[in-house]
Amino acid sequence: MYVYIYNGGRKEVEVDMSFCNEIKKRFIRLSRGQRKVAQFVIDNPNIIATHIASDVGKLIGVSESTVIRFCYAMELSGFSELQERIKEDLIGAKNTDIGDHPLITKKQEPLFSNVMNRDITSILNTIQLVEENQFEQTVKWMHESNFIYVLGFRHSSPSASFLSNTLGNYRRHVKQIQHDVEDIVQQISGMDEQSLLFVLALDAVLEDVLTITKIARNKNVKIVAITNSGLSPIREYADIVFTVGAQKQASAETIIASHSLIHSLVEGMVAQNKRQYTTFQKSNAQIESNFLFLEKTKII
């Protein structure tokens, strides 16, 4: 909303209500395929304005009919009206230079709201990208594997720590590989076909990460990668790849989406044998409680 001030009075005019904002409001009510179209429209308005519906569908990876159904879901008459709405927004953005006008102020969206809405969009986009059969297979491997290894450096390190710590609350033999030459060699030596390796690749993949993954593959280790890029080189070596986040997001901004996916995977593992995992969690919590009690006793 922009506020125009004139003649000592105050007039509020809604001029920032773009069609993309309308899409965001209806996003959660759209079907899975329509959400893919919606995200593409938000991220690529220029392509929508200059391409036909069938070409847009091919770029997104959906049918032309899905593109048209998205238009109907947005209460438009068809793709032509969608193009007109997007063109109007693009022209308006070029012709409007509100920020330089001395008598006009813009009401800013609160920072927390802006950031949290980006996180929500990132998670919603991830939901569309997850294949159910791959999710179920990964959960099965997590439940059946003797050892689970977690690999992730730099920007991927927080997600790697979250995964290893969360898994450690429910089962034994979970190890996070540290960026240390001696530790890496030792961890690799224990991997076999009964092991599962999670590779967190939420930034430019280090050569060390690729080397470890290649060795694990040669040992017939099951490999699941979580990445924010459709072009990540880790895809060549992983059995299953999950893509997280929204298009054009920085690696740091995909962490929330990766943590949400990790949470879902762990919940799926626990559901395989809830009694087993709940018992271990309670036992683990009791051991930690006794340890803290002993530490306090020593201090006293």
Topology:
Blueprint: E1 2-6, E2 9-13, H1 19-26, H2 32-43, H3 45-50, H4 53-60, H5 64-73, H6 79-95, E3 104-106, H7 111-129, H8 132-144, E4 147-151, H9 157-168, E5 174-177, H10 181-189, E6 195-201, H11 207-218, E7 222-227, E8 240-243, H12 255-272, H13 274-299
Parallel strand pairs: 4-5, 4-6, 6-7, 7-8
Antiparallel strand pairs: 1-2, 1-3
Helix pairs in contact: 2-5, 4-5, 7-12, 8-12, 9-12, 12-13
Rg on CA atoms, Å: 25 Å
Quantity of strands, as a count: 8
Q: For the record, what is the CATH homologous superfamily label of the largest domain?
A: Glucose-6-phosphate isomerase like protein, domain 1
Distance between the termini: 61 Å
In terms of DSSP E residues, the strand content is: 5-15%
How many strands, what sense, and barrel or not for the largest sheet? 5 strands, parallel
- Total number of helical segments? 13
Helix content: 55-70%
Give start-end ranges of low-pLDDT stretches.
1-17, 97-106
User: What CATH architecture label of the largest domain applies?
Assistant: 3-Layer(aba) Sandwich
Query: What structural class do the secondary elements suggest?
Result: alpha/beta
| Morphology call | elongated
Major β-sheet strand ordering: 5-4-6-7-8
GO biological process, one term: carbohydrate derivative metabolic process
Keywords: DNA-binding, Transcription, Transcription regulation
Pfam families: HTH_6, SIS
GO molecular function: carbohydrate derivative binding; DNA binding; DNA-binding transcription factor activity
